Amino acid sequence: MAKKEMRQPIESGCPDGFQYMHPVMLRNFGQWQ
Q1: Lowest CB count within 10 Å: 1, 8, 12, 17, which one?
Q2: Closest by alpha carbon to 21, among 11, 9, 3?
Q3: Nearest to 18 by CA among 6, 26, 8, 10
């Protein structure tokens, strides 16, 4: 679910969101794992 939800905004074609989520995704991924 988390992967699909995060992929939705990225696939939408949001450059700003992608750059903003890049560092956040890495931090969230580490906490989730």
Answers
A1: 1
A2: 9
A3: 10
Q: Give the tokens for residue 13.
A: 């074609």
How many CA atoms lie less than 13 Å away from 1 in the CB half-sphere?
1
* CA–CA dist 18, 33 (Å, integer): 21
- DSSP for 1-33, written as a single string: -HHHHHHHHHHTT-HHHHHHHHHHHHHHHHHH-
Residue pLDDT, tens place only, 1-33: 455 555 555 555 555 555 555 666 666 666 655
